[in-house]
Amino acid sequence: MSPLRSRFCEYMILRGFSPRTHESYLHAMIELARYYRRSPDQLSNEEIQAFLVHVITVRRLSWSTVNVYFSAYRCFYEKVLHWDRADFHIPPRGRSHHRPFVLSRQAVKQILQAPRNLKHRALLAMVYGSGLRVSEVCCLRPHHIESSPDRMMVRVEQGKGHKDRYTILSQAALDILRNYWRAYRPGPWLFFGRDKLQPLDSGTALHIYYQACNRAGVSEAHGIHSLRHAFATHLMENGVPLFSIKRWLGHSALATTAGYCHVTSEHLHSVVSPLDCLPKS
Questions:
Q1: What is the pLDDT of residues 69-106, one digit of tens each?
Q2: pTM of the full predicted structure?
Q3: Alpha-carbon torsion, ordered 117, 123, 129, 134, to 10 deg
Q4: 217 and 129 within one domain
Q5: Same domain, residue pair 197 and 60
Q6: What is the CATH classification number for the domain harbouring 234?
Q7: 3-state DSSP assignment of residue 182
């Protein structure tokens, strides 16, 4: 590892960045160095901006991926190399306002019933039933499932932002988990990989989700995170307070939770206009 890369990795460790952020930021730096065939510290601000224009207009990377590149370069040049604004400056990028398609209750049901493998069914049921991120469901341990009748909670340790929280435990998911436990007898990790001593990889969990979508014939699914969006949306439609949903999702701000809740067409069709609710004359 070069001294420059070592400095960048040490900074990310000190900041407490997740392993996925480490990987993404290093990939962005490698792509920049490979494009110019020079070390990143030897590039000018104009060259850095030209590369960003290239990935946006030529490679047509997604909004979220380009934002990772922007964040990686700001982190590297401003925090690690300590370049001032005269040496490094890239325009700020706003947030994407694209609202993901929300899975209907029927689509979710089809996806959850599609896997023939009991382990796969249990994993997807936990993602939707408790509103978990894929990294969180892969890191579940057996003692995180608090299934006593007076609790029915799932403990999420060191989720996004290194925060611990509790979220609800679905009775239907618990029933599947118990069948899964009797069949597989997992070790330290509830959902293990090829080795029982290692947790399931996030990429494998994503593959399980897409495989279930294909088997169910659900074409509008956009990643396993859609089940987490559906969890929030369906709770909102059931009249659950937004503050409770916020706590279960592990959000710091209500505005973030509001971005997860989308009014589905089937819910709109069930809404009655207030004019039709007035007393008849």
A1: 999 999 999 999 999 887 788 877 666 555 556 788 89
A2: 0.71
A3: -140
A4: yes
A5: no
A6: 1.10.443.10
A7: helix
**Is there a single domain that holds both residue 72 and residue 121?**
no
115 near 215, Cβ under 8 Å?
yes
Token couple for 208: 């399980």
Alpha carbons 115 and 71: distance in angstroms, whole number: 38
269 is catalytic: no
Token couple for 190? 């509830």
Task: Say which of 120, 228, 229, 234 is annotated catalytic.
Answer: 228
Round to whole Å and give the CA distance between 123 and 209: 9
One of 119, 120, 133, 229 is an active-site residue; which one? 133
Residue 29, domain extent: 3-80
- For 146-173, letters b (16+ CB in 10 Å) and e give eeeeeeebbbbeebbeeeebbbbbbeeb
The answer to whether 234 is a known catalytic residue is no
